Amino acid sequence: MSLLTTPQRPTTLLSRTSTSKSHTLQNSKSTTLDVVTPALNISLLLATTLRSILYTLSIIALFQITYTVQYTKLIIQTIFLYTGYLTKITFNYARYAGDNGWKRTESLRRKLFFEFMVFILGCGNGILLIVLWPGWILVGGVVAWAWLMG
Predict the structure, then answer these.
(1) What is the full DSSP assignment across the chain?
(2) Tens of pLDDT along 78-124?
């Protein structure tokens, strides 16, 4: 975990450089480096502190993302298994209901078929021919044309 800790004195290099330069320039009381050194020291300390904070936050974010992805995968797998199970149960119940319903309505279907055949073969033949005659399309077109022209 040495990456997450800040150095003890990140500004000692700048301090040493500024003091050695100031000793070499004995005539000048303040040089540019002596004026800028405190600001550079503070900014370097701030940069190293921010770097360590960002490293820590990115490692925490990495752990949280990994945790979220793993549990999302687990939840998706669980939902998939339950969906398959419920689909199987629903299909079995629907098949059972369809089989029983088809068997129980057999007598009703026979009676309805008999009534339909009596209607077709009896007096209903003429009525069905009039209602279902395909020539009504042609007759309807002629009537519509006459109505629009007249």
Answers:
(1) -GGGS--S-TTHHHHHHHHHHHHH--S-S--HHHHHHHHHHHHHHHHHHHHHHHHHHHHHHHHHHHHHHHHHHHHHHHHHHHHHHHHHHHHHHHHHHHHHHHHHTHHHHHHHHHHHHHHHHTTHHHHHHHHH-TTHHHHHHHHHHHHHH-
(2) 999 999 999 999 999 999 988 888 888 899 999 999 998 888 888 77
Q: How far apart are alpha carbons 134 and 95 in whole angstroms? A: 39
Global pTM reads: 0.39
Structure token pair of residue 93: 């119940």
The whole-angstrom separation of Cα 110 and Cα 11 is 101
